[in-house]
Amino acid sequence: MNAKQKMRHILDTLAEMFPDAHCELNHSNPFELTIAVLLSAQCTDETVNKVTASLFQKYKRPEDYLAVPLEELEQDIRRIGLFRNKAANIQKLCRILIDKYDGEVPQKHEQLVELPGVGRKTANVVVSNAFGVPAIAVDTHVERVSKRLAVAKPDDSVLEVEKKLMKLVPKDEWTITHHRLIFFGRYHCKAQNPDCPACPLLDLCKEGKLRMKPGAKTKNKEVKRSVNG
């Protein structure tokens, strides 16, 4: 198989495994999605959804986030990692939305990445899920799976992984591929204890093949023992 044939095989397999893959961050509009994705950096979607369940009841518009002291917003999201920094970014972001965009989330990628706390990944998630613009956001799951399946090299940067996926995946499949790669990484090809025995893509995964070799776990334990002592 060449690279595109291999990618097609991966895409078709993921489609069979996760036909209904979707964004798992709860939101009802582009503004809520932007806040949720900002909060999700170095934090699980599950935790973010628990926090936003009450957060989105209290804060409906950018003006609402600016109507309270920073300390109060910090307390509202304190279960989220880096909550102080994220609270400050939310208020800065809301001020820009009001001053520059009439309180609305801009639809262009280059405008989104200029907002505090919004990087390339967040912008890709927002444009693809809120505005229907094809994009591939590379989070930790997408990066790990892409490298394990040799779509990208082990030392590729996040941007390099994104570019390789954009080249190999048909544009009209970018967004759903992003979701399916996340589902595959979150529920099957986990960072720790991936389900290699039941993996339909094991033939493409060097790491998985090593894990499946007889005595692989024993060897790993012996290596750890030798390193530790």
TrEMBL record:
Cofactor comment: Binds 1 [4Fe-4S] cluster.
Residue ranges occupied by any HhH-GPD domain in the UniProt entry: 39-187
Source species of the chain: Paenibacillus thailandensis
Protein name: Endonuclease III
Cofactor(s) this protein requires: [4Fe-4S] cluster
Entry's Gene Ontology molecular function annotations: class I DNA-(apurinic or apyrimidinic site) endonuclease activity
Free-text function comment from the UniProt entry: DNA repair enzyme that has both DNA N-glycosylase activity and AP-lyase activity. The DNA N-glycosylase activity releases various damaged pyrimidines from DNA by cleaving the N-glycosidic bond, leaving an AP (apurinic/apyrimidinic) site. The AP-lyase activity cleaves the phosphodiester bond 3' to the AP site by a beta-elimination, leaving a 3'-terminal unsaturated sugar and a product with a terminal 5'-phosphate.
PANTHER family recorded: A/G-SPECIFIC ADENINE GLYCOSYLASE/ENDONUCLEASE III (PTHR10359), ENDONUCLEASE III (PTHR10359:SF18)
HAMAP family cross-referenced by the UniProt entry: Nth
EC numbers for this chain: 4.2.99.18
Key words of the record: 4Fe-4S, DNA damage, DNA repair, DNA-binding, Endonuclease, Glycosidase, Hydrolase, Iron, Iron-sulfur, Lyase, Metal-binding, Nuclease
PROSITE patterns on file: ENDONUCLEASE_III_2
Chemical reaction(s) catalysed: 2'-deoxyribonucleotide-(2'-deoxyribose 5'-phosphate)-2'-deoxyribonucleotide-DNA = a 3'-end 2'-deoxyribonucleotide-(2,3-dehydro-2,3-deoxyribose 5'-phosphate)-DNA + a 5'-end 5'-phospho-2'-deoxyribonucleoside-DNA + H(+)
Family: Belongs to the Nth/MutY family.
